[in-house]
Amino acid sequence: MRSSLDALLNDLEAAKNSFGRGAAGKIKSLLQQLSRQEIRDPKSLVRFHEVLLFLRAFPASPTIVPQVEKLLDRFHERIDRIRELGSDMSAFDDFDTSGIAGTTMQDTLNFEVARWLVRRIPGDVEIAWDGYDEERGMGSTWPRFVPLLEEDSDVEANIPWQRWLEAAKGREKAIAWLIQRFEQLPGATGREHDRLKAELYDSLRLPLRWHLKNLRLSRTRNWRRPRQFFIHSGPLIARKEVSLAEELERPATKFTRLSRREGEATMHAIREVMVVRYRELYGTTLGDPASVVRTDAGRGVVFYLWNLPPGRRLPLRAYVAGFTLKNGVPINYIEAIGLCEWIEVGFNTFYTYRQGETAWIYAQALRCLCAWTGAKTISVYPYQIGHNNDEALDSGAFWFYRKLGFRSGKPELEQLARSEERKIAADTMYRTPRRILTRLAQAHVFYDVMSGGKPPAGKIVRGPWDTFSTRNLALRVNQRMAREFGGDAVRIREASTREVARALEVDPSRWTPGERRSLGNWSLVLALIPGLAGWTAAEKRDIVAIIRAQSGRDEMQYLRRTQRHARLRDEFLRLGS
Q1: Quick check: helix, strand or coil at residue 103?
Q2: Residue 180 and residue 123 share a domain
Q3: How many domains, the chain?
Q4: Would you say the pTM of this structure is higher than 0.85?
Q5: Same domain flag for 199 and 283
Q6: How would you label 426-438 residue by residue, b for 16+ Cβ within 10 Å and e otherwise?
């Protein structure tokens, strides 16, 4: 029976990438046979689950979709059965296979995600007390909520923490009661108070356990009906068929800004996508629902992009987050952080869908990001190509980007990449050794939109952003703080703000609190520019407009303003490279 099951799964995994005449019939037949199988092996059940999700995203026929959806909707019953048989459930908690309906997940979530999850599925989240022993954190924090706890926590050993919590919470769920207490902490309102609440909660390192049952937020059922299905009647687009240069030359994609209500729904959707995969990004947790846009790239691919709310933005760089639906199935997430015409892009396609037109979808993502941000230089983090990332090294991620037109930001590594290309051209069986891939992953790779990603033959071209980092800017600020202000962060901020306000000839007293906060952050860097007071009146006005836009309603307007100030851009490059 096991041999028969393996054969069926092998055939289905092979058939999922088959399209055209007879493909749909074979898939439907295999699904019918597997639907009658009682799969007791967890790893086989995971394989079946992942193929079903792929087929839901990349169907070869419209008749496959309802068959797949029916199997997914009842998949939790299969999980329940093997749990009753006493099977080892650890196979369902791997980084790439977590989140299946019927399973249980456990993680230490930050305050914002924990609060959201408790509100989203209030009856299915609990504190995972077994193995948890953070007495110092509980003793420091809980007395704010639990009267007279100090009588015990300050002097006694072996404190019955759960008993204290049970007495204080009454009939409420323990985690819901705790979250509410943190929300009601007295103190100043606004951004700093939010940070304080989060820091106190996070200091507990409280593990939560949540039960997915047959919930819609599970990976198994976390898909939606698209406006129109794209049916794959022919082969999937291979990487070698994708020209990034040609895709970026196409007319700009059209964006639809969502209503506030639709934006809130999108924020819930991305948090669901991330929490069941043990993933979190700053922008998926704290995205601005008022900024969400939608764009249709074709072939059943829809992108959602958004920014950060004013109170949560980075001090200098603009931020974009997003995710992709393929026929209504979430298949990846996106992050881009930029300044002037430069953006760093992170793009992670979930394991299940990596054989599904990844290069073409990535090209569409870059096309959308460039259209929305105005970026002309695209940078990819070293982690994405293998730095401290075994999975990227194993998959040869460097070559995925290289063949799309990216170049290394370090001349010696660019020379090494060209040497490897010559070896591959001379011997089609040659494969770049892992040690060389590890070296190639030591630097960012870049795509220069204006040159179509193709530097002149024989030359090692260095772009203006190759060695830039906002970290370099920040380190210069901190060195000045240590040198001139005795390491006092308050003094350097106040002094820099006064100095820059004089140089720009502005009185920020009537500015909003957010604009004054932006001025404080920007002043730390602007104070490093010699002769700022001598800049032209127009250049100063444009800097002031940039600073005020940084806390404005539209973060992309802020980014585009930085692209139009050539002199400021040059100073950024000088100080940050």
Answers
A1: coil
A2: yes
A3: 4
A4: yes
A5: no
A6: eeeeeebeeebbe
